[in-house]
Amino acid sequence: MGIVYNKEDNTITLHTKNTSYQMKIGNLDYLFHLYYGPTLHDADLSYQIMQYDRGFSGNPYESRNERTFSLDAQPQEFSTQQQGDFRTASIEVVNGDGSYSFSGKAAKITIEKEKYRLETLPTVFANESDTVHSLEITLSDSVSEVDVILLYSVFEEADIITRAVKVKNNGKTSIHLKKIMSLCLDFINGSGMDLLSLPGRYGQERQVERQPMTHHIHTISSVRGSSSHQQNPFVVLCDQDATEDFGKCYGFSLMYSGNFLAEAELDQYDQLRLVMGIHPKQFVYEVRPGETFEGPEVVMAFTEKGLTGLSHLFHDFYRTNLCRSRFVTQTERPVLINSWEAAFMDFDDKKLVEIAKAAKNMGVELLVMDDGWFGKRDDDNSGLGDWVVNEDKIKCGLHALVEQINDLGMKFGIWFEPEMVSEDSDLYRAHPEWAMKIPGRPEVRSRNQIALDMSRKDVQDYLIEKVNAILDDANIYYVKWDINRSLADIWSNALPADKQGEVYHRYILGLYRIMDAIIKTHPDILFEGCSGGGGRFDAAMLHYYPQYWVSDNNHPIDRLKLHYGTSFVYPPSCMGAHISDSGKLVPLKTKAVVAMGGTFGYELDATHLTEEEQKLCREQSALFRKYYHIIIKGDYYRLSNPFETGNMTAWQHVTKDRQESLLSVVVTNLTCNGPQEYVRAKGLETDTVYSVNDGQYTLSGSALMNAGLPIPREVPEYTAFQFHMKAV
Ligand code: GLA
Description:
Number of strands: 37
Distance between the termini: 39 Å
Radius of gyration: 27 Å
Number of domains: 3
CATH class of the largest domain: Mainly Beta
CATH topology of the largest domain: Beta-galactosidase, Chain A, domain 5
Structural class: alpha+beta
CATH superfamily of the largest domain: alpha-galactosidase from lactobacil brevis
Helix content: 10-25%
Bound molecules: alpha-D-galactopyranose
């Protein structure tokens, strides 16, 4: 178990409970990758390395006349540059002498009994009960005096391995990094695999696409300055015949919120290479003598139990080892109502109190005051940056407003978009140089706002002070942290011309510093991330926020796809999901069933609901509370694929002890005189007897999983069913 460095055969093997990962210090001290997959026990896979004279594949000079060794044909642990490997590189560095070359030889290996740390970037952490070992392998280039340090942590019980990379300049002149990948994984035999990713767009984030690997480079990336709506920093490589329940699946989740790149290349010999890290676009990072650059962490998992098994590994790990918020472990998330779709920016303190009173009657526990409460903010053309309460709207002041809400027995939350500035704002008038604009050029407009230069320390300090001042002024229980545009005009007035290639990454480092500072001083606040919905929904954000707004699209039928796609890597406990007015034809009950796929809440004007609707909402809020432990802490099963034509979408949550479950079904299509349909449960104990919906059925787990439950026909369109199963 753990990490084994076998000095006789020169292999290093990482073992989790069910997986092994093997490397070998091979010819000329180059580091080869041998294996990642089911447990190897103590096998040495060095015999897998076959070497032939391959035409047009260069041979290192040191191998003299030996033409059978070429990096172009060997599986490597970190692919190099200008060393005869023409496949995708993990590094592109301009050395002090202007040369573009890196040739790393394994020089130093250390093994520790704790999780490695990064100074500048968020990482997962080890809990006291976890068995974790870490490995550091230094690949040294003796000519350029550059070290690449590969970091690994092995979480044994969780079946998770994390990786990260550091580049250290031991030379006497600066080097410039143009590409640095945190992960390079070579499969000796990579044929017959599919690549699954989560592309999308605004309002339709994390849809699912799966494609067979062919002989070219498949690229999944974002160059929007954020991990984006359009792609997600998560990919799966799986057997072409892998299903939800069976088959080999590898998952890779990058802990980074800025530009990212994943490249999967099936090469001429059917070897498969995956690299993942910061996107090289406009990335030129100077590493001065003695300095070290850190690349973000990648979380990797492997299972033979299909896509559901893979999701369970990530869900379990991200629920326990990613975010330290008390809302992950100790405190239940409140049922919230958000003012955005109720009032947009047209509200005052009285209106908010009215919404809160009506919402209280719906079982809501937290009122969130969204955009519009600060500066001069009556529409989205002004006010961003001025984080002071607008007392024309909040006439009684923030403190008194929060007191009124608290007196109703409710908690209070607030919205910020700290990273942005409006040209029509006091902040912009005072500090135009803080906005990202390329000198001499008009900026690219997007929602009429400009990004603040988060790479600047003075901007970071301003935001920490302003946000903290609001959080300290009143009894704030919740914060929604938003960002509503992609970045363009990448430029920092605080950096010289030759450092502008660092701005994209420094922006993200600045953002992490701010969030760290604010969250550490307010550890009791529940933070929810947002980017025009789910535009920066990534593992690094979930390190800071236990939950994230899935999408501005609240249409419950679209939400079926949104929750389905998001669930491939992120657990329901982090999916912000609300009932709203969107979807006029969809019954309120169905909206509630869908919102119970995540952290249930409301996004509507509660004062407009009838007494009967409020009562129904009250019942639904109570159900969410009742089922909280199943939804938030249980295993999640995708029972059907909403992207395929079918008449219903179904999913299920099962408690870890398999004694209780919630199975939800939404009828999405009605066919005239169609066949009777059944939904089969998953994850139950075959020989345990369950009472379904308090005695509607009493059936064994085997019956529920193999024969299934009939879904009534002849029901109105978009009817939803919930089956609560409890062992008797
Ligand atoms: C984004 C968010 C919304 C809302 C608005 C406010 O679009 O996704 O939920 O907060 O901003 O401007």
